[in-house]
């Protein structure tokens, strides 16, 4: 059995760099694993455990001829048959700062636990506004842990697969030009921002003047001659009023041409949101409005202006089932590339703070697939302790460290029980 650690990825596809030395340029060079400082590396306990288990496997295989016995599979090998998926905001970070227990939770998963086990995990956030590489570098520094773009899904990640569908797209949200950079990185051919449209005609947004920087970064285009084929809200809008004005102009236009007005109001481009969270948690005591609120706002305005329901809005992210299918593929590939294990884990513990997206999505996905998806709600984010969540998690815990311990302990008990049953089976067969 090969010895697998985060520092020595098994696949040649993945390269490792140090989280203390890494630069953004390093991350752009291909699939990478940002490794933690040596002080965070796990001890040799897993290797010892692996040898012990190989030994046990040999004995078990000798004494039982049924090689397809499912219960023996759970103790074979050092890779657990479960994995974790984490939401980020409200679970690991809050208001941009690390939640105190988050670093401990990561260390625990990376081998600093009573069994010395290393557990595979991925991150599934509705947030966005930066490239996946950039976000992973930030996260690896904040958590002192290995974070690879290969184990990371953000709200707009699935939009990558739509780059071929549209020629010219309007990208909304995020700081400065960042979302344009993300969209171009995804392969979108012609990316327009609200700033480009404001630069074309200042009268489009009568109450806002572009700053010097915004004006310089915005591109000179003649939007009376350009059709915009789709609108993508990549990240939270920084200027709701102006962004809403331009989005409404396009939704009511003929074929996405600025300055035109459709008679039937159904000739405008479709609009995609990277997620649907109406609220999110910051350090302020009450939840703040998120991208889902902008969608509600746009739909209400569309209805008010046209008397019709907007039919062309789509949201990605959690709780959409597609996001969880995507997460399964990412998790499966991560287990194979880094841990050398084929197939999906039997149980995925999903740790989140938002009942409407994290818990609802996990519970609904659980009903769809053979594997177990187990929802864990933490009290450090959107969920307000004392209230009854609209979507019930399997368990509610204080914070992410408790969530990790709960999942690992639960799976440990299950494995011991299976081992016990197996032991009884062997004893019975010997006595025969
Ligand atoms: Mg969250």
Automatic annotation (TrEMBL):
It comes from the Eukaryota. NCBIfam families: CECR5 (TIGR01456), HAD-SF-IIA (TIGR01460). One of its GO terms (biological process) is glycerophospholipid biosynthetic process. GO terms for cellular component: mitochondrion. This is Putative phosphatase. InterPro entries: CDP-alcohol_PTase-I, HAD-like_sf, HAD-SF_hydro_IIA, HAD-SF_hydro_IIA_CECR5, HAD_sf.
């Amino acid at each position: 059995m090969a010895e697998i650690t985060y520092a020595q990825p098994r696949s040649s596809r993945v390269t490792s760099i140090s989280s203390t030395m890494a630069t953004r340029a390093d991350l752009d060079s291909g699939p990478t694993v940002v490794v933690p400082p040596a002080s965070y590396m796990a001890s040799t306990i897993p290797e010892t455990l692996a040898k012990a288990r190989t030994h046990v496997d040999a004995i078990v295989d000798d004494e039982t001829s049924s090689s397809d016995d499912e219960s023996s599979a759970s103790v074979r090998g050092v890779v657990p048959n479960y994995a974790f998926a984490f939401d980020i905001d409200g679970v690991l970070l809050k208001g941009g700062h690390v939640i105190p227990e988050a670093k401990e939770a990561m260390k625990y998963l990376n081998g600093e636990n009573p069994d010395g086990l290393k557990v595979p995990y991925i991150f599934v956030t509705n947030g966005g506004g930066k490239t996946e590489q950039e976000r992973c570098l930030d996260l690896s520094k904040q958590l002192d842990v290995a974070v690879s773009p290969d184990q990371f899904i953000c709200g707009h990640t699935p939009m990558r697969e739509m780059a071929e569908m549209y020629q010219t797209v309007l990208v909304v949200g995020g700081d400065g030009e960042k979302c344009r950079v993300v969209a171009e990185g995804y392969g979108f051919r012609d990316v327009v921002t609200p700033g480009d449209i404001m630069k074309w005609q200042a009268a489009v947004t009568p109450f806002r003047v572009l700053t010097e920087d915004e004006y310089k970064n915005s591109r000179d285009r003649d939007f009376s001659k350009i059709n915009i084929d789709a609108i993508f809200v990549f990240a939270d809008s920084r200027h709701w009023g102006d962004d809403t004005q331009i989005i409404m102009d396009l939704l009511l236009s003929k074929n996405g041409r600025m300055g035109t007005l459709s008679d039937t109001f159904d000739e405008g481009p479709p609009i995609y949101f990277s997620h649907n969270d109406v609220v999110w948690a910051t350090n302020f005591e009450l939840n703040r409005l998120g991208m889902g609120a902008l969608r509600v706002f746009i739909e209400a305005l569309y209805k008010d202006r046209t008397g019709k329901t907007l039919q062309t809005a789509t949201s990605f992210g959690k709780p959409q089932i597609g996001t969880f299918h995507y997460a399964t593929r990412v998790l499966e590939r991560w287990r194979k590339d880094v841990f050398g294990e084929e197939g999906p884990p039997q149980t995925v513990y999903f740790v989140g703070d938002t009942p409407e997206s994290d818990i609802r999505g996990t519970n609904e996905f659980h009903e769809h697939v053979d594997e177990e998806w187990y929802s864990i709600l933490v009290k450090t984010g959107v969920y307000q302790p004392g209230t009854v969540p609209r979507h019930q998690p399997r368990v509610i815990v204080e914070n992410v460290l408790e969530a990790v311990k709960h999942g690992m302990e639960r799976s440990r008990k299950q494995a011991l029980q299976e081992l016990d049953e197996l032991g009884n089976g062997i004893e019975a067969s010997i006595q025969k």
